[in-house]
UniProtKB/TrEMBL annotation, chains A, B:
Keywords linked to the UniProt accession: DNA-binding, Transcription, Transcription regulation
Top-level taxon of origin: Bacteria
Coiled-coil region: none
GO cellular component: cytosol
Segment forming the signal sequence: none
Entry-linked InterPro entries: cNMP-bd_dom (IPR000595), cNMP-bd_dom_sf (IPR018490), Env_Response_Regulators (IPR050397), HTH_CRP (IPR012318), RmlC-like_jellyroll (IPR014710), WH-like_DNA-bd_sf (IPR036388), WH_DNA-bd_sf (IPR036390)
Biological classification of the source: Bacteria, Pseudomonadati, Pseudomonadota, Alphaproteobacteria, Acetobacterales
Gene Ontology terms, MF aspect: DNA binding; DNA-binding transcription factor activity
SUPFAM superfamilies associated with the record: cAMP-binding domain-like (SSF51206), Winged helix' DNA-binding domain (SSF46785)
Stretches assigned to the HTH crp-type domain: 168-239
Cyclic nucleotide-binding domain span: 61-106
Pfam families: cNMP_binding (PF00027), HTH_Crp_2 (PF13545)
Protein name: Helix-turn-helix domain-containing protein
Source organism of this protein record: Acidisoma silvae
DNA sequence: CGCTATCTTGAGAAAGATCAACTATTGTGG
DNA sequence: CCACAATAGTTGATCTTTCTCAAGATAGCG
C-alpha cells in the first residue's frame, strides 16, 4: 500500500550523523535517488489457491476472524472487500489492510490471529487450511517461491504504511490512500471508483478521525483535485494529488 | 516490536457496524479477549546463517544499504545496532526497525531496497547473498520453514507497529518502546539497559519529535516509573509502564 | 416516505510540533 | 588528566494540526 505515493518524495539525503562519510563503501550506490517499488505487484499468489478450500458468504460487517482466534486457516477474497484490524479496549482501532478480490490474508498467522478480519461489504471468501498451504509449499517449489515473494511483499507494504502513519500529514495520507485505491479498484467509464469502505474505516486505516478524513476530502473536492459524491470518487488531477500540494 | 505493549489493551470489542451480529459464525470465537503473541519470538533464523557470508565492520552512522540499492544481499547483525529507515526529500524520516545482534534484515528485498540500513553504533554485520538464501531454501526444508516463520513474524511485527503509530499517544509509544527495548537489550546488574540509539532515532521510530520523546521520558522519570541518565535507562515500575497510566 | 446510517461542517480544546535557549555528556588534543 | 569543542539532550513559550464535541445535511434502505 502507498506504493503509489509520490515516488519523488523518496530520496536519499545525507544523514544527520557526522560519521556518515567514514569508512569503506558498503552500499553499492552512495548517494542515489531511489524510487519506490512498482505500485501493484502483490499478485504472486493470484490464482494459486483456485480449487483448494471452500468458499463462504459473509454479510457486511460480519467477523471472519476474531482477535485471538486459533490460526488454522487463511482466506482469499473472491468478491467484496474485507478489512483486517486490531481493536483496543478503549475503542480505538487500527485497520491494517483492505483486501479486495484476489487478495489473501491470514497467511502470516501462527498460533492465534492478532488481527481480526471483518467484511467491509458483503463478500465471498475462500477458506484454505494452513496445513494445505504447508503441503503445497513442501511439494511445489514454484508455489513455495511465490508464497515467499508474497510474504516479502506484505512486509514491504506494511513498512510503507509505517512511513505514512508515522511521518505523513493528514492531507498526504488521504492523497496516498486515494491513489492506492484508484489503482486497486476497477474504475467505471468516467474513471470514478466506488470506495467500498466508509469514512470511519478510512480513518482507522490512516490513523485519523472521521472528521479529518471528511475535511481533507472535501478540501480536495473544493480544489477540483477529485470529484466525490459519497463513496464515488474520481481523481481529476492525478499529478496534483501525487505531488506535494501541501493543502490548507 | 511492541509485542510487549500491555496485552490487556488488546481486546475484542463489538464493532460499530450494525450488521456485526448477522449470519453464521465463521470465526471460532465470537467474543473473545485476545492477547498479543509472545514478546520475543523472532529467533527463527538465529544461528541459521552461521558460517555463510562474510562479515564486515561498519562505523557508527555508516550506511550499509542505501535506498534504491540493488537488493542482492541480506545482512545479519553480529554486534552493534543497525536501523532501517526511509528518508523523505524534505528531511522527514521513518525508522522501520532497530536491529540487534542475531537480527537479520534485507531478506524481504526484491529488486531494490526501499529502506536504507545504517549503523546506529559501530557494528559488525554478516553479509549473505540472497542467492545463497535461495539455495538453502531449496535444499533444506527445515531452513525453508524457519525462513517462512521469520518472514511471517516480520509481517506481524510491522503490523503491531502500525497500531502504535496510528493509534497510540506519545506517552504510550514511549512506554511501549522502553518495554520493547528492555526486553531485547541485555540488562546490567541494576536492571538498567543502555539504549544504543539517540533520541532522534527514537523519534523517527515512533513518529514523534525529539522534544516530545525527551519530554515523555523526563515525565516518566519524574514519576519514578523509570530512571534515566542519558542513554542508560532502568524500568522501575514495569506494571505502571505497561498499564494505561495516561500521563499528563 | 420516513428512519437510520453516514457524512459534513463548525467551534473550541488539546496533543504534539516548532523555535529557541540552555545544559549535559562525550570525545579529543594538548 | 584537563579543557574545550562538538554532539546530544532538556526545557520553555508559542503555534499548528488534528481531535473532540455538537449540530445539521445527505443518502440508503425497508
Amino acid at each position: 500500500m502507498f506504493a503509489s505515493l509520490p515516488a519523488s518524495t523518496i530520496i536519499y539525503s545525507p544523514g544527520r550523523h557526522k560519521a556518515d562519510q567514514e569508512a569503506m563503501p558498503l552500499s553499492s550506490s552512495g548517494t542515489c535517488i531511489a524510487k519506490s517499488a512498482s505500485p501493484i505487484d502483490n499478485g504472486y499468489l493470484r490464482g494459486r489457491l483456485d480449487g483448494v478450500g471452500s468458499s463462504v458468504e459473509v454479510a457486511k460487517g460480519q467477523e471472519i476472524v476474531g482477535q485471538g482466534d486459533r490460526a488454522d486457516s487463511c482466506f482469499e477474497v473472491i468478491h467484496g472487500c474485507v478489512r483486517t484490524l486490531q481493536r483496543l479496549e478503549d475503542g480505538r482501532s487500527q485497520v491494517s489492510e483492505f483486501l479486495l478480490p484476489g487478495d489473501i490474508f491470514g497467511l502470516d498467522a501462527s498460533g492465534e490471529h492478532e488481527f481480526a478480519a471483518e467484511a467491509v461489504t458483503a463478500a465471498t471468501i475462500r477458506r484454505v487450511r494452513l496445513c494445505t498451504i504447508d503441503l503445497l509449499t513442501r511439494e511445489d517449489a514454484a508455489f513455495e517461491q511465490d508464497l515467499r515473494h508474497h510474504l516479502c511483499y506484505q512486509i514491504k507494504a506494511a513498512r510503507r504504511r509505517l512511513v505514512a502513519l508515522g511521518r505523513m500529514t493528514a492531507a498526504e495520507k488521504i492523497a496516498g490512500f486515494l491513489l492506492e485505491m484508484s489503482g486497486r479498484l476497477d474504475a467505471s467509464e468516467q474513471g470514478a471508483v466506488k470506495l467500498p469502505m466508509c469514512r470511519g474505516d478510512i480513518a482507522d486505516y490512516l490513523g485519523l478521525t472521521i472528521e479529518t478524513v471528511s475535511r481533507c476530502m472535501t478540501d480536495l473536492k473544493r480544489r477540483n483535485v477529485i470529484s466525490l459524491h459519497g463513496s464515488l470518487i474520481a481523481i481529476l488531477d492525478r499529478r496534483l494529488l501525487a505531488t506535494k500540494e501541501t493543502l490548507h
